[in-house]
């Protein structure tokens, strides 16, 4: 008789979650409020652990979890899970990134109305018996422009609600294609244009190196006088001190934050500021959302434990056990090529094509395409992985083409990644050396052989004597050690590219110096 997988629900969830586990063939224990030492003592007998935000899945817990196969987070954030150690232990970590979408979008709209009509201040004043009717002069949202920073799942819901309120919507999102913008009924714009036009700005983007302080002091200064700002996404997207100063000066008419850089937010420079509203990270706090994420995590975990299906995993590709060994080096190559083209493409990309040739064309295309998309989209969000990348691409209107050519070309196996940009089609290609070692072999039409790993520097330059020496001297003077030089050119004296692998990250100041070297057309720091 086959033993049923055992699951522990260690945080309070909707009771239907336990019912789903049982219906789908799992045994379930619901034991909440455990102290770390208590969880450590019992976790060894469970195959699955279902949590919300209270349970901390630390290295100590994982070391004691000798039978654990999957951790499921009912919600988006997984800060309470040690994902690197979970991966090392072979434990899949799942979340439910879309169960809170409507709830969070509605909270953003609620805060927008609260700002427009000064509802919290008017409520306090009225309950104090003041009846200050002339003090609280609001503004209509009808006819106003909403600036949407992030047009993914939650952002698109906010846009639809705003359009229903007869607002105009301007959206900034590097992944938003013109076609998808038309479908959503929004105007696609760059960030500066959005800041200039918007009467209200709402943020719906993850916190990454690219989005951190996206509303910086400099960008806040570019906004229209009288703008109102709402953040229900992540703390750290807005410079809180700069926002405080602009509220005090009157340039920003109002701000509403559901999230802060430090949470719980026991103190903040914004507390007590007139025209500032805040809530304690309530974006996902509705009965419906909590039910949705609990049921979703139960379905996902049960499917994995009973059938081996993988959904919304943060550290595992969707692969069968038979395919994995052969596909692993191809997926590494595919992810590197996707990351390369993502880091070097700055225009809106409506289409990405993945072309396999020779031996690569005989393989399962889906994991290879997912790896390309994960590498490409992770440039903007480090929460992207092979499981959710195809969904996110579809959501943003990114057309994905998969092409196979079984005949061999110059290489016995090849993967080519092409993107459609405003200046035309651009592509990169790579192969496997000895069937296991990924190598770049072509970069935007220029033959160049390179290993994509670690910190790298990409330079486009005029092919001329002495150029390599000047770059080497510059890096040497800044005590930056070069691992490898990788060169390519279209023709003698024409455009050339230089890919350098470096022993560490290159400072911004050195990048600026490199841009001033004679013959340089472009310099970019890369990371793999």
UniProtKB/TrEMBL annotation:
Coiled coil: none annotated. Residues 326-443 form the D-3-phosphoglycerate dehydrogenase ASB domain. It catalyses: (2R)-3-phosphoglycerate + NAD(+) = 3-phosphooxypyruvate + NADH + H(+). SUPFAM superfamilies: ACT-like (SSF55021), Formate/glycerate dehydrogenase catalytic domain-like (SSF52283), NAD(P)-binding Rossmann-fold domains (SSF51735), Serine metabolism enzymes domain (SSF143548). It holds the Pfam family 2-Hacid_dh_C. Its EC number is 1.1.1.95. GO terms for biological process: L-serine biosynthetic process. Residues 7-315 form the D-isomer specific 2-hydroxyacid dehydrogenase catalytic domain. The keyword Amino-acid biosynthesis applies. GO terms for molecular function: NAD binding; phosphoglycerate dehydrogenase activity. The keyword NAD applies. Pathway: Amino-acid biosynthesis; L-serine biosynthesis; L-serine from 3-phospho-D-glycerate: step 1/3. Residues 109-283 form the D-isomer specific 2-hydroxyacid dehydrogenase NAD-binding domain. It comes from the Bacteria. Keywords: Amino-acid biosynthesis, NAD, Oxidoreductase, Serine biosynthesis. Belongs to the D-isomer specific 2-hydroxyacid dehydrogenase family. NCBIfam families: PGDH. This is D-3-phosphoglycerate dehydrogenase. The gene is serA.
């Amino acid at each position: 008789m086959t033993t049923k997988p055992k699951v522990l629900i260690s945080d309070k969830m909707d009771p239907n979650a336990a019912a789903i586990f049982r219906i789908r063939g799992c045994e379930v224990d619901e034991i909440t409020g455990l102290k770390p030492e208590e969880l450590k003592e019992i976790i060894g007998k469970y195959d699955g652990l279902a949590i919300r935000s209270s349970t901390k899945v630390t290295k100590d817990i994982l070391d004691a979890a000798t039978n654990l196969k999957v951790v499921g987070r009912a919600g988006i954030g997984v800060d309470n899970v040690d994902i690197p150690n979970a991966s090392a232990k072979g434990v899949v970590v799942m979340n439910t990134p879309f169960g809170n979408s409507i709830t969070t979008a509605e909270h953003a709209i609620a805060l927008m109305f609260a700002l427009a009509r000064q509802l919290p201040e008017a409520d306090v004043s009225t309950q104090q018996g003041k009846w200050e009717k002339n003090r609280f002069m609001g503004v209509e949202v009808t006819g106003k422009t909403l600036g949407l920073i992030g047009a993914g799942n939650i952002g698109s819901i906010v846009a639809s609600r705003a359009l229903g309120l007869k607002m105009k919507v301007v959206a900034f999102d590097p992944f938003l294609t013109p076609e998808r913008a038309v479908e959503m009924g929004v105007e696609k714009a760059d960030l500066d244009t959005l800041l200039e036009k918007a009467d209200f700005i709402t943020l719906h983007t993850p916190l990454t190196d690219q989005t951190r302080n996206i509303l910086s002091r400099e960008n806040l200064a570019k906004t229209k006088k009288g703008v109102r700002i709402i953040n229900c996404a992540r703390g750290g997207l807005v410079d809180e001190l700069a926002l405080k100063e602009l509220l005090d000066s009157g340039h920003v008419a109002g701000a509403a934050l559901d999230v802060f850089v430090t949470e719980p937010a026991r103190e903040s420079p914004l507390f007590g500021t007139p025209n500032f509203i805040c809530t304690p990270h309530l974006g996902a706090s509705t009965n419906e959302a909590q039910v949705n994420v609990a049921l979703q995590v139960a379905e996902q975990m049960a499917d994995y434990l009973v059938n081996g299906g993988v959904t919304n995993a943060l550290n595992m590709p969707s692969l069968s056990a038979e395919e994995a060994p052969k596909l692993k080096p191809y997926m590494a190559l595919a992810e590197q090529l996707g990351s390369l083209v993502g880091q070097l493409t700055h225009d809106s990309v409506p289409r990405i094509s993945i072309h396999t040739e020779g031996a690569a064309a005989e393989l399962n295309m889906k994991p290879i395409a997912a790896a390309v998309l994960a590498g490409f989209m992770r440039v903007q969000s480090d929460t992207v992985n092979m499981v959710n990348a195809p969904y996110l691409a579809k959501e943003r209107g990114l057309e994905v083409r998969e092409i196979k050519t079984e005949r061999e070309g110059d290489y016995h196996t090849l993967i080519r990644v092409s993107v459609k940009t405003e200046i035309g089609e651009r592509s990169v290609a790579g192969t496997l050396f000895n069937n296991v070692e990924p190598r770049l072999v072509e970069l935007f039409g220029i033959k160049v052989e390179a290993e994509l790993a670690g910190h790298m520097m990409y330079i486009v330059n005029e092919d001329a004597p002495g150029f390599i020496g000047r770059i080497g001297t510059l890096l040497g003077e800044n005590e930056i050690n070069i691992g490898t030089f990788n060169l390519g050119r279209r023709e003698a004296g024409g455009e050339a590219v230089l890919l350098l692998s470096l022993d560490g990250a290159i400072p911004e100041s050195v990048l600026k110096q490199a841009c001033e070297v004679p013959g340089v057309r472009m310099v970019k720091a890369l990371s793999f």
